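Q: Focus on the shape:
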Amino acid sequence: MNLLHDFLDLLLPPACPRCGRRISRAERPLCLACQMQLERVAYEGPGRHGFIERIFWGQLPIERATAMCYYHSEETRRMIHSIKYADRPDVAEALAAVWAREALAQGFFEGIEAVIPLPLHRVRQGQRGYNQSEWLARGIHRITGLPVLDAIVVRTVNNPSQTLAGRDKRRDNVEGIFTLNPAPAAQAAIHGLRGRHVLLVDDVLTTGATLLSCGRALCGIPALRLSIFALAYAGELVPDIVDDDVLDDSNAVVVEHHRPDGVSTERLT
């Protein structure tokens, strides 16, 4: 089988899904340059409340939330497009495995007992042939061994694409479109999740409206605790106040700016 793959790679060299350059099997899922240039979202470990987690504060029983990278560069948008629309769910699985290996070492998975991929509507999944969030969950499972529960929640409305919608329209589009699966087999699994901690997984997080809607459906499970992972963050690039205590020598606060080209800090008075 490896010889066959080598032969096929020789005839049709695979392309990096982010930049389009030809790559070797050793470089997958991204070429070495893109692995270095991918705009990563910083995760500082449990107890350090990052800006993505704060999106869900007061709305879900959120434990922690993060993303692997920023969506904003042209190259990363191309990568996400290939995952969703160009039949490359394998890229999602491989990237999720890379992230999961790092997150495992950082303690992100502490206490998490299962992974739930955000569901697609059956019509859209039939048209696409796969749910990219399920492939993300597979990549996480490959590293952590956590079970993937893909029948807990269902999408009951085939809502329009959120790509060009504003914040209010996004919220309206997804309100009430998820529900806990009423099937008897699923109900047994749902009962077993009472008081548990699960990781909800999606490909792109912009305003958080879709994840919030799905999370609210999951909150029909008593005492459920949620963490969230998205492959890419596509929302506004805003400052994250990480320490708003009064400093010893002034009333300044420390602001950490998360940007695709790095993290910088400044003091505001």
About this structure: The chain is about 35% helix and 20% strand. Strands lie at 62-70, 114-117, 153-155, 178-180, 197-205, 225-233, 239-243, 253-259, 262-268. The CA atoms of residues 53 and 150 lie 23 Å apart. Residues 40-236 form a domain with the Rossmann fold fold (CATH 3.40.50.2020).
